[in-house]
Amino acid sequence: MHNNVDDLNHLTTEFPDNSKLKLINESKLKDLRKVLLELQGGFDAITGLTLKYEDSVVDHKHRMNKRQILGDNDGGLIRQILDFRINSFEGKVVNAYHRYGLSKMGTPLPDLLRKLADYLEAPTTNIIHPTEKPKALVIGKRQFNKLNKLYHTKYPKRKVLAYPHKGKIGKGVLEFLDEFKMRDEVINNQLKS
Fold first, then answer.
1. Same domain (yes/no): 43, 113
2. Most buried residue, 105, 113, 121, 129, by most Cβ within 10 Å?
3. Segments in the chain forming alpha helices (H)
4. Same domain, 42 and 136
């Protein structure tokens, strides 16, 4: 087991303008990643899942612009070690927050994300959105002929059923599908195609 504090100290140098900040060279970043991952117990800092070294990256908080002083609001500072996919996701979320002007709405990103998580877990209404409307049930010719045969056998004096336009089943045909217990067969056939 490393003495991680010593490992961190020997990998970094003092930042000239601020004694609290430390610099790390690109050449020592891999070593820092190993040490920080070990400090995290080998787990991704966001998901808590086991993280392989080869899938890990050193995450840092980006400065809002180049004029922002390093360290102000933690800009430019390393946070923790993340899975490269989680790091990419985090970056996209932060960028979208600024790109869509959400940062100007007055709700800080962490608060917004907590509220979003609560919202995603909240119960829904029982109303189907128009874009999610189920496809119209369609009956094929073979199944329709089978239905017509059953219908004509049971009701010989009635007029034969007409094949619906584009096979789309209306209320009348649907009632007969239920009567002759064919609805499931038609639904299963539609799911196969």
1. yes
2. 113
3. 4-11, 29-39, 84-99, 109-121, 141-154, 171-179, 183-192
4. no
Per the structure, the complete domain to which residue 178 belongs is given by 132-192
Do the Cβ atoms of 23 and 15 come closer than 8 Å? yes
**Does residue 53 lie within any of the structural domains?**
yes
- Residue 55's contacts (CB-CB under 8 Å, 6 or more residues apart) are 83, 84, 85
Residues 51, 90 within the same domain: yes
Domain check: are 14 and 100 in the same one?
yes
Angle at 84 between CA 79 and CA 87, to 5 degrees: 45
The pTM score is 0.65
Can you tell me the distance from the alpha carbon of 182 to that of 144, in angstroms, rounded to the nearest whole number?
A: 10
Query: 14 - beta bridge partners?
Result: 22
pLDDT above 80: residue 7: no
